[in-house]
Known about the structure:
The chain is α/β, with parallel strands linked by helices. Helix content is 40%, strand content 9%. It has a six-stranded parallel β-sheet with strand order 2-3-1-4-5-6, sandwiched between helices. The longest helix has 15 residues, at 60-74.
Amino acid sequence: MKNRIHFISGLPRSGSTLLGAILRQNPACHAGMTSPVGSLVTALLRQMSQDNETAVFIDDTQRHAVLDAVFDAYYRQVPASTVVFDTNRLWCSKLPLLSTLFPRARVIACVRHVPWILDSIERLVRRNRFEPSKIFNFEPGGTVYSRIEGLGSGTGMVGFAWNALREAFYGEEADRMMLLTYETLTSDPQRAMNAVYEFLSEPRFGHDFEDLQYDAREFDARLGTPGLHDVGRTVRAMPRETVLPPDLFRRVEGDSFWQDPALNTRGVRVV
């Protein structure tokens, strides 16, 4: 596990599930959608903190060992030679921790032009018009304006991930991260996957971008958001008109900071 695990993180609706579906074609890789390991790690960090009065009996060496054990236990059934990709948006906020637990691990952060992330979520809301979504705490009221405001807050689905991404992008461990844009992944998947394998120093694999298989319908149904993790059979870019009002689109159009080379002060690779 120490030398065979990497992480997929980044922004929602930006291709992380698609990337996982592609990687799953490679028998040497284990990948998928968001795993529960991130939640287990954060829960344990809190329980091993001074918030727990018995934490006086736990030192950092023990904390390290406990977190190691979580990864080992969760992936115990995966063959030792397999390259594991654990997916969670919170990993961008935990690069110092990951660099200590797994010194050779790398993070692939999936990103997408921010207005189109919000457009994608709004489309799901409108498509599932008879079922409120957990994304908005199953609240059936609201408007596109209140939904975008909630998504962009510091604890919102998009706002948290965006802040975590910036933290990693400008942090001291930025050299272990690569940004993979949704635009490249969908329009030129071969180039995208070549870059992924090169960044990870793993041998390339001949993926079939015309025959993907991935099913998360049960998970999405429990979230009240059917289609949230849908992956089409064929990888392709699909141009469309936005459903967002023009003023909302313009409001977040400048938030895709990775598009400006002058802001890439750590020299993070952006594909």
